[in-house]
Design a protein that fits this description.
heterotrimer; A alpha/beta (188); B alpha/beta (362); C alpha/beta (254); A: 188 residues; alpha/beta; Pyruvate-ferredoxin Oxidoreductase, domain 3; six-stranded mixed sheet; 19% strand; C: alpha/beta; Rossmann fold; seven-stranded mixed sheet; two-stranded antiparallel ribbon; 9 helices; 9 strands; globular; 2-oxoacid_oxidoreductase (chain B); oxidoreductase activity (chain B); Pyrv_Fd/Flavodoxin_OxRdtase_N (chain B)
Chain lengths: 188, 362, 254
Amino acid sequence: MAKAVKILLAGEGGQGVQSVAEIIAEAANEEGREALYIPNFGVEQRGGVSIAYLQIGDEPIGAPKFQTGDIVIALSDRAVHRTRQYVGPQTLFVYDSSIEGIDDALPTQAKKILPIPAIEVSKKELHPRVFNIVIMGAVIKATGVISVEDARNAIEKKLGYKFEKNPQLRELNFRALERGMELVAQLI
Amino acid sequence: MPDKPIEGEKRVFMTGNEVVAWAALAAGAEIMYGYPITPQNEIMHYWTRLAPRYGREFLQTEDELSAGFTTCGGVLAGRKAFTATAGPGNTLMQEPMSMAEAMRLPTVVVIQQRGGPSTATVIYSQQEVTMTTLGGNGEGLRIVYSTANHQELFDYTIKAFNTAWKYRFPTFILGDGYQAKMRESLTIYDPDIRGIELVQAEPFLGKPGVPGVDRPPTQLRNTYNVEEELYEVLEGYFKDYEKIAPEVAEHEAFGLEDAELVVVSHGVVSRACKAAVKELREEGVRVGYFRPITLRPLPVKALRETAEKVGKFLVVESAQGQLARLLKEAAFGCPVEMLELFKPGVGITAEDVVSRVKEITG
Amino acid sequence: MSVQPAMPKSWRVDTKPHKFCPGCGHGLVLKALGQAIDELGIQDRAVFGCDIGCSLLAWDFFNVDTIQTHHGRTTPVITGLKRANPNLIGIAYMGDGGGYAIGSQHLVNAAARNEKITVILVNNTQYGMTGGQMAPTTLPGQKTETSPYGRDPEKTGYPTQGPEMVAAITREGAYVARGTVANLRQLKNYLKKALENQMAGNGFSFVEVLSACPTNWRTNAEETWKMVEEEMPKYFKVGEIKVPGGQKEGEANG
């Protein structure tokens, strides 16, 4: 029996980690898989690091939060510090390569550490607004929890009303998804 | 006549608070009274958006005392009324629910537990077990369902209205911040298509006819002049409660046939326990799983039968032994050793449970 | 042979004589209320809620559906009932401790929301049921069990001006008055108007009633009436304070 894949996303407010977790969870649900997503919330969240706990599997999911993630993604320096505790010997730790001064804070026990230039890629090649979709691409490439088609459908479902008005946005988002996948593929 | 809130059934992916709002609609709840407190707020948010479409009402009160007492008023008028609260709000809620116990009012209260004591955290705990089962200056004349997942949150919220109106004891859904805020899939449905008959509400006060002319007046009180008067009323209540307890009590269990150790938990923690017990059993560890779904009344018979034949209970909860105290009382005299894994105000994972069991079994 | 006094039709005869102490004002207030209910013909629609304190002794007073609640909580119970079934006429009956101390947040917020209910608050300047402690309405210098040397306003404040407060926080549509057991005709008139205001769906209606507690005041009949008629009105002005769209009692036409 395959255990559920445990994904932890952490970043600053506005980086969109919650929306990424939600879109992936909904896509997995659409596929008929079991998905559970819970944000940190309340006082914990105000002014702090935004964390999304996401689990996807084929059996009903156990506890909503977990101690060790299969993949942990940190998108700011504070997020790197905050998420070290979720990293174990089997964890793939992904962080943005533009974050400075965190070399000492990076987890040492991870199975693999992947720096990806997601912020830079979204800013230079795409648009800063699709940064979270780049991250989404990275997550699905690294975990395989949903297929590219399902990811596209989920994005369409979530943002379709915007694409209606501006079809270029659709292309931009889909390219962001591809780029996110490529960033991880190069490293694995 | 507004359409049914849910036609047929459908698979959805939503937060627990949204689930409660849909379930209350499906159960025919007519009015919600509430006061903001995290983590139950979105029950009100969804209810206030959905209710007007189906001719239902909402009142935001000045505090939880008022939310509880207006809920009593709504029930007295013959409406399916409910409220939701948490933590310090639950503390205040005990006063009105004590009146509901004294007058056998079928109120429904959803509790989304948060950390305690005091304001503590707005996140999560299982620290409102003692208060929700035995709160107020009374004897626990109430029914408490502790749910573990969104499907149950939906099923048991509907059931809570039926239980309350059928037996006339205040009824609680005991959830928590995790269940409130997390999203997972479930199937919501029109109770009709599942053959669930909704118990009809009826007014306590304001029935047809002129009181004293066409019918005697209905005069309800919770105050008595002499000790014997109170005693007589309570004796009647205890008899009723004892009679319905076996009908109401529910539990879930597996692996008891060969278990030397049984992991006992409730609510969201039982998800971790279930996963841990399954994993351990696959490894050949003789461990079982027992989960009371009703915390009040407890499934005493099943619990005692289990406690008679297995040597050890491992009680797992996100509180410092609030469930354990209830279990010890229920299993008093049984030759069972009670071991513990208590993490007050903190979530418990399957890994936690596995390692604690291995520590015990060696 | 004594002459049986005429009882309001809405009184429940088999529970009389009532349970209040000799000289207590509650019987008089409830008589005026009974007459108002009779005259409005609402015995079948009225729901009477009574608080904790001496008001609870009215739990079987009327041939009207009745709910006896907790201390201070009659206002939310009747609010919840009225919200759930607006056809009912909700009456919340309480003392000064219930309305102005432990239940003040409910009174303030029900008034501010303009709940379509009628609150009747009996002011006898102290807590009667619990044995005569100081209340928000105790007069300066008045001796009670918890102000044995007389209420010192420097330390414990001045008597709460309830109707004035309610008038200040309600919008147009509210009815607010202060009556007295020393003038039952006027009191019945106020209570009737308060109920009519609810029936018309105008808004919140509130009547404070100056009443007597000779038991805890430890006063004889003459002293009791002096307190009600002379001492209390020095702090509590009798009359209508807010009348929806209309004229207050006693104001000249034209």
